[in-house]
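Researcher: I'm comparing several assemblies side by side, and this is the next one on my list. It has 1068 residues spread over two chains. Same procedure as the others: predict the full complex and return the structure.
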Amino acid sequence: MKKIIFSTLFSLLLTHVLIAQTKVEKWDIYELTLNGPSTGNPFVGTTFTAHFTNGDKVYEQEGFYDGNGKYIIRFMPDIEGTWHYVVNSNKSDLNDKKGSFVCTAATKDNHGPVRVAEQYHFKYEDGKPFYPFGTTIYEWPFQDATTKKQTIETLKSSPFNKARFLVVPPYKEKYIEGPLKITEFPFTGTNKSNFDFSKMNPEYFKKLDSCVFQLRSLGIEADIILFRPYDKGKWGFDMMGQEVNRRFTAYIIARYAAFRNIWWSLANENSFIKNMNDEDWDDLFKLVQEKDPYRHLRSIHNADVIYDYSKLWVTHVSYQYYNVVKSPTGTAMARDIYKKPVVNDEINYEGDIESRWGQLTGEEMTFRFWNAVIGGGYATHGESYKVSPWISYGGKLIGSSPSRIGFLRQIVESNPVGYLEPIDHFFENNMAGKEGKYYLIYFGKDKPNKWDFVLPKKGLAKGSKYKVEIIDTWNMTIKPSDKTFEVIPMPGNNYKFIDKNNSSIKLPSKQYIALRIFKVSDGGKVSVDDKNEL
Amino acid sequence: MKKIIFSTLFSLLLTHVLIAQTKVEKWDIYELTLNGPSTGNPFVGTTFTAHFTNGDKVYEQEGFYDGNGKYIIRFMPDIEGTWHYVVNSNKSDLNDKKGSFVCTAATKDNHGPVRVAEQYHFKYEDGKPFYPFGTTIYEWPFQDATTKKQTIETLKSSPFNKARFLVVPPYKEKYIEGPLKITEFPFTGTNKSNFDFSKMNPEYFKKLDSCVFQLRSLGIEADIILFRPYDKGKWGFDMMGQEVNRRFTAYIIARYAAFRNIWWSLANENSFIKNMNDEDWDDLFKLVQEKDPYRHLRSIHNADVIYDYSKLWVTHVSYQYYNVVKSPTGTAMARDIYKKPVVNDEINYEGDIESRWGQLTGEEMTFRFWNAVIGGGYATHGESYKVSPWISYGGKLIGSSPSRIGFLRQIVESNPVGYLEPIDHFFENNMAGKEGKYYLIYFGKDKPNKWDFVLPKKGLAKGSKYKVEIIDTWNMTIKPSDKTFEVIPMPGNNYKFIDKNNSSIKLPSKQYIALRIFKVSDGGKVSVDDKNEL
């Protein structure tokens, strides 16, 4: 019997330490490495799966071939206690290997994978809300060590908790020659004439492992993108055919599903990939559903033709539709259409490049984030300055929006009512919160000099008292109004409540002002919406 | 053998004239009446279908029982020439009846049923574009003769070419007693305690026949609504159970499908009907698909929960989502999501009632219509003044929007390029037309004092010349600018063309201004969008 080699997560950092893993914390990775045949093509025709059991709970986790005769299974235990496993394989060297380990409690910053919560939002598996404030660093895995390190340092002090990036680089001259020349590709071979799409290249993926792991260490979700256009007919990664697409997808799932911070983004701008159609995408979604034991979030990022995000296997909308975030209405509407969380994953980028999708001011980027949030959804940042093309390579952030996005994130995360929902949103379009308890009102590009205290009646009760704070979303200040407001039904209006003294709030006649309104005491009977009336 | 009775369309006007129909024009109704058994319950268990054949073309048309032993088949021939038919029935009195008639050419105002055209639009079957400018008269079939006559007179001189109304009245006190007391219901019986949902009431439907026919005579599409909430637990028409729902639907199809002006609207505010769920609606849609030989348009009108209009059996979106029409973006987005025509069938109503959905000014109603059109879709009018509740009963129109809607309709119908599509709509949101040829630009509530001649580059060629007209959408004036503009690429901008002299147009600093721009001469090579860039 061949020796079973246990390795720890250090292997992800490319340091193989051959010690037996006997303990692993919840939602961390238990990694099992077996020696097996290195002859033939282990990527095709080898079945290699382990059943992990803990009481009634059973997971089937596929393994992957890591080169040099090494076969790896990565498993993410999700309950504490002793897990037993047994390996099934059609290779006798691998078959029937057994073992066990103990899963211990999750430690401080480990909250598990992110799930959909309350239909339109997200939470970690331990119940902690997760509000995505993502950024975009498409090609960061393919940069030099210095840039990658700088990217990690930048992310550490940024407000971003999700990063979108490509598993396969776009075709660019800089990756063909010069200091960034790419020598390892996802498949064996070095160019179109000698790629062997039947053989993955483990060395390529070991580098990617490290990227995903580093993000996990920072508490950043890795929204990894499996397919992309941008091939220019040079490498052929966008036209491999569905059999290869499936094998590629299955390999990535086997390799990365055990990372708790993984989100599956099947493609970037999928409708620009002319060799794949909706049937192919549906098929890959179903494959992910079948192969990922942990049910990580699944979406796809559209270009000019919008994929039908209402399909059952899509967990959340991953939009590219810039007009959606030019007011709060679009995101609220997308929620009502798809009945899922809406993440506006591309809303143009802050920057100064020639392409118009990369010319936003920091003000406009911040404005679009606020609109997404007031619409009950989320947005993703990107920065594309000529001198610092963060969306492509990572490195430094030099824009003015990240700090404002961080300020918004604080406001969202510190609100007292949990997830923000659009309020009275068939008629209103500038407020979110929870009726009667908390309101976030955003004036966008309007420059009001005052705000009359008027709120939609739902959830309000005569006599309840409210405090208001004035938020300058650009200058990042929050100033409390010294008044307390007591609400009564608005005379002659069946839909609104007002302050009993008809009070107003003075506002600074500037753009990008918001209000937040907290309930400070209870009143009488709460109003509810009339039935059967929009 | 019983005598076969032929009746003409006069029967629809409640005048039975017993002459044999030997000729009928294309898309008119060939009506065949047979005598059969009047015992038992002819509404359940009787099969009664005719096959109509003309060369290779075969239609199967179900008949319906019309009371007093009369069985009727209504057929809409769609090609000229001799049609032969044979009746199949499980009642021997009806079975194997045969005959033929000649279908003649359509006459002047008969263009056939309306179909979807160019994905987002409509045309009559003869190819003439149909631009829906609808109105709403929910309960007009249930009013007194004077009001109904007045409604028809009003429609005759209105801009509206589609009318939405209910097949079953809402429960209201006025229909229980007093001059409008309803004595005929869709089913036999007079109240909840004695309705027999297994038996339709033909007398009820004869009155409805006349309503659909009168609209047809005016060239108005009848967007008939099969189910509705608004029952208040009094009659039970919203909780009959799916078997009855299906029989009711099949009866209506058999009775009305041969009217070329029919659109099927499965429900109004379907999500307010608590006893029916999406599965029921899907099932009814499939039933309509199966039973309607002529494939009339099919949709359903949502309330708080949006039905998935991307489902295959839905031909067009029939939206109630007010924010969609507060800018052109919403309609354009709905097109991109559903990939179908978008008709905003409820956008609130012009009026002064206490309910906020009936408080629009004429200006706001007109504004919302323009937004729908600039978004590449359509809208439906309604009027709800206290003194003149048109949306409920018909009668007179007293609002200020209909004439402006008529003005917009003229502009839409007289444009030189056919259907209007949103232009450069991932970035722009105020223009529709056809790139390079025709632009309709709408400024909505903005009050610009000038417009710099700047257009998105797609379709433009250096040296092409354009004329501009300034439209006051409220005062219904169109004033040509005396300048001619010659376009060149905008220096330093890769996305725009401008006038070579940097010319502007002076505008009146008022709300609700639009421009229309016509090409008057050709220039050089036309620009197209860069590939793979949004």
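Model: For your comparison table: The helical segments of chain B are 145-156, 202-217, 242-256, 278-291, 329-338, 362-374, 390-393, 401-413.
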